[in-house]
Write a structure and sequence with these properties.
This protein is α/β, with parallel strands linked by helices. Helix content is about 40%, strand content about 15%. The chain contains 13 helices and 17 strands. Helix 1 packs parallel to helix 13. The chain binds NADP nicotinamide-adenine-dinucleotide phosphate. The site of NADP nicotinamide-adenine-dinucleotide phosphate has 18 residues, from loops.
């Protein structure tokens, strides 16, 4: 076991991994990062829900040994380090962890800790399921038709962090090189960013999306790209996506253009240009089931899809690699609500549901989802849902957790 100087390792066991399968002990050590802004409010509520659901599902036989690890403002204040190396080590060693949101300044300042974690741990698939909970107010007429799982490529694209500030010698050197290689004019003094996308990175992401569709009996995987304009990056994403479907899933998947020749039993692989996909998601959401898309498109699309079913307060996510995963909500730190016991903990709680599903503890997931459904049916919800549900009673973060716990079982 690695040595931890900042974090205390609780009594419990490590999760193992062999033959592409997790080996989960009855008392797994699971690291968590509380998060900045509203993170502590949300974590306090979420962990109570998780522990209550595990107790209900397994009596005392199984229990999570939570291990606090540090990142973000709390870590910087306490230890002078935004992202201690041992935090990354703990996420690697214990394999499955969960985190709250971390602040990322716009423009200058530190680089995104979230992006750093995803890159350091090679968590290449950001998985964001978006579904409707009956009774939640939503801005569209038929939110129940939205049931998509977005697989967002997580470590390449413009998020790789290769960009140079306007006016620097590096930006100028790259500008001249790009002019020479492309024969196109770039205005002097421009900032320059690089958008790397590889066949390797794309294919493993699309493969994960197709495997998910097959496992969960979902009808289609849609490759969302901007390949009409960015031909060699986003366009290649589409081509590599179809290629991996042909190479690895010839018997289980079929391209939309060949559907007439299929027997209807295979997962349909289709593609849509990103701008068109945003209107498709609003007008014909039931045509889409699993979506695989590059990093930036996926970031936009998952917030937009979450808004369609009632907002970021109930939008979970997981960053998943091979045998390592960090679960986290789609939303950020929502700093204006920090410390008010007001924010919706639903996204982190549902990220926990994804985590327990990943561990294979399905009864825990069922209890939590039932608790959330009943809290919404009782119309006792946090402010974000209450403002969209006429006649609903607004409750605090902690009271919403109580309501969920009361509705389990
Ligand atoms: P944000 O924190 O997601 O908040 C934007 C708005 O979304 C909030 O004002 C609130 O809307 C709504 N919202 C967010 N979380 C909610 C929740 N749990 N319950 C109900 N409503 C919720 O986005 P931001 O203000 O743009 O970003 C703040 C910081 O978070 C930035 O530093 C950003 O970089 C960071 N961030 C981190 C992550 C991450 O850690 N993975 C992800 C995204 C952003 P109303 O005002 O309408 O109530």
């Amino acid at each position: 076991m690695a040595t931890y100087k900042l974090a205390a390792v609780p009594t419990g066991d490590r999760i193992g991994y062999a033959n592409d399968t997790l080996q989960v002990p009855d008392r797994p050590i699971i690291p968590y990062i509380e998060g900045d802004g509203t993170g502590p409010d949300i974590w306090r509520a979420s962990v109570r829900v998780f522990d209550a659901a595990v107790r209900l599902a397994y009596g005392g036989k199984r229990q999570v040994a939570w291990m606090e690890v540090f990142a973000g403002e709390k870590s910087h204040t306490k230890y002078g380090d935004w992202l201690p190396a041992e935090t990354i080590e703990a996420c690697k060693e214990f394999r499955v962890s969960i985190k709250g949101p971390l602040t990322t300044p716009v423009g200058g300042g530190i680089r995104s800790l979230n992006v750093a974690l995803r890159q350091e741990l090679d968590l290449y698939a950001c998985i964001r399921p978006v579904r409707y909970f009956e009774g939640v107010g939503a801005p569209v007429k038929a939110p129940g038709q939205v049931d998509v799982v977005i697989f967002r490529e997580n470590v390449e694209d413009v998020y790789s962090g290769v960009e140079f500030k306007a006016g620097t010698p590096e930006a100028e050197e790259l500008r001249l090189l790009a002019e020479k290689l492309s024969g196109k004019k770039i205005r002097p003094g421009s900032a320059i960013g690089i958008k790397p996308m590889s066949a390797f990175g794309t294919k493993r992401l699309v493969e994960a999306a197709i495997r998910y569709a097959i496992k969960h009996k979902r009808p289609s995987v849609t490759l969302v790209h901007k390949g009409n304009i960015q031909k060699f990056t986003e366009g290649a994403f589409r081509d590599w996506g179809y290629e991996v479907a042909r190479e690895k899933f010839a018997a289980q998947a079929i391209a939309e253009s060949d559907v007439g020749t299929g027997d209807g039993s295979r997962v349909i692989i289709k593609d849509r240009i990103a701008d068109s996909m945003f209107q498709q998601m609003l007008l014909r959401p039931s045509d889409y089931s699993v979506i695989a898309t590059p990093n930036l498109n996926g970031d936009y699309l998952s917030d937009a899809a979450a808004a369609q079913v009632g907002g970021l307060g109930i939008a979970p996510g997981g960053n998943v690699g091979d045998g390592v995963a960090v679960f986290e909500a789609t939303h950020g730190t929502a700093p204006k609500y920090a410390g008010l016991d007001k924010i919706n903990p639903g996204s982190v709680i549902l990220s926990g549901v994804m985590m327990f599903e990943y561990l294979g503890w399905q009864p825990v997931c069922d209890h939590i989802v039932r608790g959330i459904e009943r809290a919404i049916a009782a119309r006792r919800v946090t402010y974000d849902l209450a403002r969209q549900m006429p006649g609903a009673t607004e409750v605090s973060t902690s009271a919403f957790a109580d309501q969920i716990i009361a509705g389990m079982g």
